[in-house]
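thought: fold this chain, then report.
action: predict
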Amino acid sequence: MGITIGHGILLIDAEHPGVCSDRSPIELRRGLRAIVERAAEQAGLPAEALTAEDRGGGLLVLVAGGLPPLRPFLPNLVDALRRYNSRCPALDDRLRLRVSLHVGRAVVGPDGSTGPDVDRAVRLCRAEAVRRHLFLTPAAPCLVVSSERVHRAAPLDPARPVDVVHAEGLDRGWLHLPSVTPARVTPTAVPRLLSVATPR
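observation:
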């Protein structure tokens, strides 16, 4: 039996993980964890606030209490990604990321986190329309898709809508290419989490 907790929910997927690359799945996940941890640290978010779970070619990241402040976190995520890629001599080993942002409730159990809000984050990140947009934007190292709930509370600019059709209906997402300029917070600053009230 899991415990239901309010979280910021991020799914971070690597584009075509393992294709034309000698990187093992373990190395891929280790790299993604390093990128997320560096971005969180640069944004002033304590490591203990994050829980990361392996999800195929990506990571499911839960942030207790809500999403990190997006203005410092997303540029720092891109900066951490660029730093990681700069150490990869082979172009095929360099990562490009799709990142979905959602807030909601997750059932956290010994076999991983589940629930409708986790499913929504996964659907948005892995939707064909989102994959295609990153594919058609080869210069972009990272593409972010916010859920409608996140977009209403903290819209990213510029953003364009994308509709994801699935068996249970339709999810509206908002696509955004984050800035590549890293943003730091002052050592004394306490980041305020984006927490959106969700139904129980």
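thought: worth noting. The CA atoms of residues 25 and 57 lie 7 Å apart.
final: tokens above.
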